[in-house]
């Protein structure tokens, strides 16, 4: 894992020289913005602000979050592409913007995730959970869920958005289990969960952190998690893989990116700065309170992960037949 040079200093703000000079100063000597494609207060914004706080004074004198809301997160990516590759603009975005959207939007997408973005490192990792409410009485595991769906010739499930990982997780489950699952897209996790609690829909797939409170209060029952291993806080909830569905193992991540033209030395320095930030105990505690995990990797490993996941989601999106309107 790369370690940050002692607050390396670029020879000039626009990287006039590729070498980084060791000095007691931030890497970039201007205000830096972290681009977030979602509103203030949401999970992406919270993660951006936690990392901005740790980069302040290390990466730049000031690091601010710039919320570019709209087009389901795409505006922030498009803004990064208009930015100079000098480290003054950093994008932190969920995985689906770069691994699923190319299959959804095709030529309508105004960026090429592979050609236009330089992966730096993931910063946050988190699973999803399948939860059932009072409209699925007695269902406590996936086998019972599948039997329940078959007994009713199919059921509906909710996700926080059409075209999201939870949406396509349901598609994959239906295919693997041989059941009919009708997807109901909502505008965010909260209304989906509200309807599940009210018995309007039997099941919902969401970020695990959004469902924890309701699981603990017995208003919902989380019956499977998409992570490779059980979530430490909920050791009694088995993974999809443990319950016979290994292909449904998937962790969503938020990742940091620079424009593709960013010099390798700058990418390496930002990777090191974010790795150091992710090791901060207070930051990790703040993330864990939301059922998130601080997670980093070398930039080359991150790029390989993106390639693998992009390949994985292609057939799933195609089989679903879903095409977004916007």
UniProtKB/TrEMBL annotation:
Belongs to the UPF0065 (bug) family. This is Tripartite tricarboxylate transporter substrate binding protein. It comes from Roseococcus pinisoli. It comes from the Bacteria. Pfam families: TctC. InterPro entries: BUG, Bug_dom1. Keywords: Signal. Residues 1-23 form the signal peptide.
């Amino acid at each position: 894992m790369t370690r940050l040079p002692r607050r390396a200093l670029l020879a000039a703000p626009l990287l006039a020289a590729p070498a980084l000079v060791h000095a007691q100063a931030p890497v970039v000597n201007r205000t830096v913005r972290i681009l977030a494609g979602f509103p203030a207060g949401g999970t992406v914004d919270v993660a951006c602000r936690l990392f901005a706080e740790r980069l302040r004074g290390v990466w730049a004198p000031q690091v601010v979050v710039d919320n570019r809301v709209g087009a389901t997160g795409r505006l922030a990516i498009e803004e990064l592409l208009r930015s100079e590759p000098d480290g003054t603009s950093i994008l932190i975005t969920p995985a689906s913007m770069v691994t699923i959207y190319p299959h959804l939007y095709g030529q309508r997408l105004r960026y090429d995730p592979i050609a236009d973005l330089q992966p730096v490192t993931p910063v946050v990792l988190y699973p999803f959970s399948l939860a059932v409410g009072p409209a699925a009485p007695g269902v406590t595991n996936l086998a019972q869920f599948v039997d329940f769906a078959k007994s009713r010739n199919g059921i509906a499930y909710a996700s926080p958005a059409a075209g999201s990982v939870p949406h396509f997780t349901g598609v994959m489950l239906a295919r693997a289990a041989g059941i009919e699952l009708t997807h109901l897209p909502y505008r965010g996790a909260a209304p989906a969960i509200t309807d599940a609690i009210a018995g309007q829909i039997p099941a919902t797939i969401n970020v695990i952190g959004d469902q924890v409170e309701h699981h603990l209060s017995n208003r919902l029952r989380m019956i499977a998690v998409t992570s490779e291993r059980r979530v430490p806080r909920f050791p009694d909830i088995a993974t999809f893989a443990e319950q016979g569905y290994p292909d449904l193992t998937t962790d969503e991540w938020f990742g940091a990116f620079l424009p593709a033209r960013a010099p390798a030395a700058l990418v390496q320095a930002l990777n090191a700065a974010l790795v150091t930030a992710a090791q901060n105990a207070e930051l990790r505690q703040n993330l864990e309170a939301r059922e998130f995990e601080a997670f980093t990797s070398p930039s080359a490993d991150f790029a390989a992960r993106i390639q693998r996941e992009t390949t994985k989601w292609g057939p799933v999106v195609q089989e679903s037949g879903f095409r977004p309107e916007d």
